[in-house]
Structures are given as C-alpha cells and as structure tokens.
Amino acid sequence: MKFRGKICEQACIKQFTSIISTLAKLAKMCTLRITSSHLYFVVMEATLSSTPGLWCELQQGHFFNEFNMEGVSPEHNEIYLELKPDNLARTLSILKSSAAVRSLKIKLTKKHSACLTFEIESPSQTSLSRLCTHDIPVTVLPRRLWAGLAEPRLPQFSVSLDLPALRLLRPVVERMRAIGPRLTVSASCSGRFVLRVESDQAVVATHFGQLRTHPAGDEAAGGDDVDSEHMFDVQVEIKPFSMFLAGDQFHPARAVCNLVEDRMLHLFLIHDDITLQYFIPACSS
Fold first, then answer.
1. d(Cα 79, Cα 212) in Å, to the nearest integer?
2. Which residues pair with 115 in a beta bridge?
3. What is the model's pLDDT at position 157?
4. At 82, phi and psi to the nearest 5?
5. What domains are defined for the chain?
C-alpha cells in the first residue's frame, strides 16, 4: 500500500484544515477511506445500526496538486485507516496561525507503527524553506471490515429543506443549550422551520419561514394529498446538532436538513467538491 498527496493552493490548505477541525468536533474516532478519486471520512454510530453517523466526501482533484496511491491490491485499490480526527486537527492547527504555507504533504509511512505523516513547508527568512513534520498513528483496517463502512443508504424523508444560514443558527442553538439538553426540530413542505427547547422554567422556540424545499416522501412520489403546512417533528440531542453547525467554518454553499418524523435528522453540507452528511437519531423516550 502507498499513499502520497501534496496540496499547494493556499485556499485548499485552509479549506482542508477547516474540514478536519469540523470532524474533530463531531467524532472521537473515524475511518479515512482513500481511493484514486476521493477521500472519505466515515464515522459509525451504534445507535444508527448499519448507517454511518457521519460521511464526508472530498474529491482529491479539488485539493491535491500531486496525488498517488496504491491500494491493498489491483482489484481492491483502496486504503482504510482508523484514526483520531482530534490528532489531525492539533497537527494542522499550526496552519491557522501561520501567515504563509508553501505546501502540505500527506503520506502513509511505517515508523514504529503505521502513520500518516504530515510535512508542512513554510517560507523562512533565508532562501531555504522550513519543514515541520508530524506523525499521526493510524490503524490499517483489513478488507474483511470494509463492508461495514459502506456509503449510507438514505431513508424516505418526511420533509427536506435548506437550513437558514448557519452563522444565524449557531448563536440561537448555543443559547438553547443552556435551557435544555433536547431539541425539537419541526419543518413543513411549505418552508417553515422551527427549533424548540423546553425546561421546567421555560419553553423557547425560534421560527424561520420561506426556506427552499425539496421533494420528499409522498411529495417526491407525486402524491396529491400532501398538506404543505403540516409540521413534521423529531426530538434530538441538542449537543450533536450544535456541533454540526461548526461546519460553518468551511463556508458551505448549501446546508440541507432532511427530517424523518420521530426517527432522525439527516444534515447535509455541500460546497464545491465536498459533501458532509451527518445523521442524528431521535431521542429514545
């Protein structure tokens, strides 16, 4: 197995760093799947059975100026690595404070154990470049475990609509976290979206309207009896919803909320050649 990639564009380095920082907030462990065309970050959640809790897909051609990989075999030209995204985020945190970085090189190496080695090249006051190297321990997953990390199969949604701007949602949800641990999310096919939190002392709700909707459920099947004003509800833990909103830092072009009534939220960030799907199951009663 071999993997080596190099990112030279400043905007792509910053974007890649923001994505890793977002992943570190959402999961303690994840699997990095490397193919010839994409990088995938996958997080499995026991509460969602066979569906990943998080699926982040990056098109390598968007990020890497140089990219070379060889999988476990010609027939199975992929690599699966288990790692802690927080370790990656700490390694790349130096890029946030650095005024200029010439390149970011990532490669799979064998030290005392398997590692992802990051080489950060920065300019110096001399004609030479300064190179900072970090080794992140990883576990290479055998092929027998790959089937359990397949792309998520999406359920039949009750309603689908674009979220309000994440920069507006984040402070609202942060204030709601101080009131209670559970969040009721409601949405309609007419573009209404409501967040509600309850405690013994108060019930607080925030309403949004005229959001863009997408066909879902009976509406997608062409049903005529769909009540566009009917509100579909699901109650979820407020903490993971709040952490998902940290995805605003890589400035997604769109954020979509797909709601399965009483079962789950499927949240979707889309930007250029990046997609991030996040599944939050309904609270158990």
1. 38
2. 109, 137
3. 94
4. -95, 135
5. 2-149 (3.70.10.10), 159-266 (3.70.10.10)
**How far is Cα 11 from Cα 17, in angstroms, rounded to an integer?**
10
Q: How confident is the model over 110-119, as pLDDT tens digits?
A: 988 999 999 9
d(CA 72, CA 224): 51
Sign of CA dihedral 96, 98, 101, 105: negative
Q: Extract the runs of DSSP E, i.e. beta strands, from the chain.
A: 2-7, 30-34, 38-44, 52-59, 66-70, 79-83, 103-110, 114-123, 129-137, 139-140, 159-162, 182-187, 193-198, 203-208, 213-214, 232-237, 254-260, 264-271, 274-281
- 278 or 47, higher pLDDT: 278
Whole-angstrom Cα distance, residue 245 to residue 22? 9
* Mean pLDDT over each residue of the chain, to the nearest integer: 89
Residue-level length of the chain: 285
Token pair for 189: 């096919």
Q: Give the mean model confidence (pLDDT) for residues 5-33.
A: 92
Q: Which residues of 93-121 are buried (b: 16+ CB within 10 A; e: fewer)?
A: eebeeeeebebbbbbbeeeeebbbbbebb
User: Read out DSSP for 180-239?
Assistant: -SEEEEEE-TTS-EEEEEE-SS-EEEEEE-S--EE--HHHHTT-S---TTPPEEEEEEHH
